[in-house]
Amino acid sequence: METYLIQVRNNTSLYVKLFFSMLFLFILARENSVAQNVIVEIDEEVIFYHTYGYEQGEEWIIPVRAYVIESRIGIERIVTGFFTRRRGLSSDEREIFRSRIADFLADSESGEEVIFVFDNDPNEEEFRILDSEGYRAQTDLNGVVEGYISLPKERGEELLRAQESKSGWLKLRAVSDEHTGTGYIQLIPSEGLSVISDIDDTVKISGLPVGRSFVIRKTFFEEFEAAPLMAKRYQRWEDAVFHYVSGAPWQLYRPLSEFLLSSEQGFPKGTFHMKFVPKNLISINTWRSLSGLATNENITHDQKIVQISAIFNDFPKREFILVGDSGERDPEVYREISNRYPDQIKEIIIRDVINDRQMNPERLEGMTIIPAPTFIGKANQSEGQ
Questions:
Q1: Neighbouring-strand partners of residue 152
Q2: 3-state secondary structure of 309
Q3: Least buried of 32, 109, 112, 187, by fewest C-beta within 10 Å?
Q4: CA dihedral 340, 315, 145, 126 (to 10 degrees)
């Protein structure tokens, strides 16, 4: 069985270090690009994150999260060129790196209202995202708008018929001024089977226990690699709906979702729930958040507890299968969720990547174990401290 060297690290701290590295390069690149007049910007794009709708009386309540950006193609070129020279990147590695950093370097658009319509809607109704008090929401300093829309059930049925959707998924597109972008919403019945899945080292090989250099290479310079046989396992749950809950930052949503949901990989379409890493440096809240991300080892644990609990609260009659890995704290997260919602847990499945089944069996007690290639030992000093 394949083994790797292990160096246990805080996944969140890793992403924060990467953020500051790219921030430094971004500042240098921006100054250089202004001097050379090579900043290239395109129309504002709205990234709608895959989400769901849940039933409340005679309505669907749909939480919506969107990110409004302008790509900085010139700065992408400069930062990519810097890393190409520094690391001796091949042409393939260079293109992968550029695609993975794009949303970290993009210009976040604040104070914008996002308006969208559903494809093939016979009424051509425009929808606006509302905040918790029912007012129209706008993007914050980080370009993010969060809120909800409500949809009468009969309208939901009408839209599903219009789009010939058999699985509850509806496609939408932005129609607000100077905005482009599409997204998907799944209307999920109140009863049935749901699967909540981690991403890193559960469905995608990331090697988080190995250490920083390995993870950086896997995340930013190499083609993503699916965990063996996990897609086939997920496909067997034919009538289930899926929620992917990850400690990775939202800025990696597009490459991750495009990889997992591609026809080549075959993971079921699902909603995504990831970590918020703010980028606007003129806000004191950004620095407070980054400080917490860098120093609080429980931040991913707490994030997952909050996001998974929200899903359980929205679907109190559904059964859940929870799938994760042993490399970080998925067993602890899922055990806490099981204690909170014992009547809704059908099964907890852990892909064991650090041989806890032998070295620490009590940690996985009561859980279904998937033996996996194991990360063992101590990392070389070259891994860096």
A1: 59
A2: helix
A3: 32
A4: -170
pLDDT in tens, 60-80: 999 999 999 998 888 888 889
DSSP letter at 382 equals: G
373 burial via Cβ count (<10 Å: 0-12, 13-18, 19+): middle
The model's confidence at residue 275, banded by pLDDT at 50, 70 and 90, is: very high
Residue 41 is given by DSSP the state B
Secondary structure letter of residue 368 according to DSSP: E
pLDDT tens profile 195-211 = 999 999 999 999 888 87
Q: At what angle do helices 284-295 and 11-36 cross, to 10 degrees?
A: 140
Residues 157 and 164: beta-carbon distance below 8 Å = no
- Does this model's pTM top 0.85? My answer is yes
**98/80 Cα distance (integer angstroms):** 6
Using alpha carbons, select from 197, 247, 254 the residue that is nearest to residue 227.
Answer: 197
DSSP code at position 78: H
Mind listing the domains of the chain with CATH numbers? 191-383 (3.40.50.1000)
For 69, list phi and psi in degrees, rounded to 5: -140, 160
